[in-house]
């Protein structure tokens, strides 16, 4: 758009001083004639810009003229270049737009702030994905974005975890959330807030009907309600285990979300007692990953569940 191009010219001149018309044309991917027309438009709008032709000529702002496009402080300008959840921009198709926006911000920053902002972008990196998270299925967010930004209802074909067949839902979207590298659609279904993992959506159809959100309710509020439901869901089964000291650090890291308290560790015994809160006895099966480094002490139902599962695994491999 012409307005974007005019702003880019203004910021480049403010940052660089005199710039040849050909260089501006190449950077903005337009003709030199278009650049001169844009310069004339800037001048007409009151910007003191002029052009000098010839070998050493170029386009330049009148000495001393500056426009404070951002009004940013030093800390604010640095904060903009710490790009949390960088993968989010790519998933939304905004990588190029982000790069362009940051170039404009950099050009608009007061000169003393630019070096710190540039160093921040090179020295600070935020990777929101988990270690060894495994390859994730590519997610097409286009239809979900359309629904969110045009306030339309969606029809989803959605497969829940642990199920093989998808279900069909008609939902009223509030927005999209990226958490730890995973995208979620936050929506109401029949007036009740629901969370849908984007990588489990097999198909999404934009409906002609306008969205039916609850009055006065915004995405941040619905997300907070759903987040609390997931994180504060009470465990129905308390499982007591003993863990070999050699595996204690790994055990704590992998089970931090379900530990009811720090393990009872006096620093001397080979075994350390820990207590976990699971939603069901079946969830205790995950402890089999530790082999003989973790033993379930109670309840009896959890011991029986692990024994039966281990026996089935043994039979499977013995039969091979």
Your description of this structure?
By secondary structure, this protein is α+β, with helices and mostly antiparallel strands. 38% of the residues lie in helices and 23% in strands. The chain is built from eleven helices and ten strands. The strands form three sheets. Strands 6-5-4-3-7 form a five-stranded antiparallel β-sheet, with helices on both faces. The termini are far apart. 15% of the residues are buried.
In short:
The chain contains eleven helices and ten strands. The protein is α+β, with helices and mostly antiparallel strands and 320 residues long.
Give the helix/strand layout.
Elements (H helix, E strand, L loop, with lengths): L1 H15 L4 H8 L3 H13 L4 E4 L5 E4 L12 H7 L5 H6 L3 H14 L5 H10 L18 H9 L1 E7 L8 E13 L2 E8 L2 E6 L3 E10 L8 H13 L5 E8 L3 H7 L16 E8 L15 E5 L1 H20 L1
Antiparallel strand pairs: 1-2, 3-4, 3-7, 4-5, 5-6, 8-9, 8-10
Helix pairs in contact: 1-3, 2-3, 4-7
Structural class: alpha+beta
- Compressed to H and E, one letter per element, the order equals HHHEEHHHHHEEEEEHEHEEH
Sheet of most strands: 5 strands, antiparallel
Strand portion:
15-25%
Counted beta strands: 10
Uncertain runs: none
Task: Supply Rg.
Answer: 29 Å
Strand order of the largest sheet: 6-5-4-3-7
Instruction: Tally the helices.
Output: 11
| Global outline | elongated
Share of residues in helices? 25-40%
Distance between the termini: 66 Å
Overall pLDDT confidence:
80
Keywords:
single chain; 320 residues; alpha+beta; five-stranded antiparallel beta sheet; three-stranded antiparallel beta sheet; 11 helices; 38% helix; 23% strand; elongated
